[in-house]
Amino acid sequence: MSPESNPERPIPIVELGVAEAYDLLSHRFGVRDLPPLEAIENEDWGRDSLLSRFLDLSPADLAAAGLTWDEEPFDRAPLDRPD
Q1: Which tens digits make up the pLDDT trace of 12-49?
Q2: Which tens digits make up the pLDDT trace of 38-83?
Q3: What's the mean per-residue pLDDT of the chain?
Q4: Computed over its alpha carbons, how large is the radius of gyration of the chain?
Q5: For residue 45, what are the CA distances in angstroms to 26, 42, 48, 78, 82?
Q6: Rounded CA gap, 37 and 32, in Å?
């Protein structure tokens, strides 16, 4: 699920896998102080740690990479809430 695969629909960061998040952080955003991928790829804390690193990035940088913190799919209308 590469953000470049559908540039019209930003990818929610929480949908990224460990390897994908690692690749984006290290290659797209130049983050260098990440632990080795092999050490974190099968650990729940590793994914959480990687995703938290996106908090250090500006919304503009995330948008330029096709990413968003918004978890609501763009192809679905919001649910009506009862009054």
Answers
A1: 999 999 999 999 999 999 999 999 999 998 888 899 99
A2: 999 888 889 999 999 999 999 999 999 999 998 765 555 444 555 5
A3: 84
A4: 14
A5: 18, 9, 5, 31, 37
A6: 12
pTM score of the predicted model: 0.75
Q: What is the structure's pLDDT at 9?
A: 86
Tell me which residue of 72, 59, 62, 60 sits closest to 24, measured CA to CA: 62
- C-alpha 41/C-alpha 50 separation (Å) is 10
Cβ neighbours, 10 Å, residue 62: 20
d(CA 7, CA 43): 30
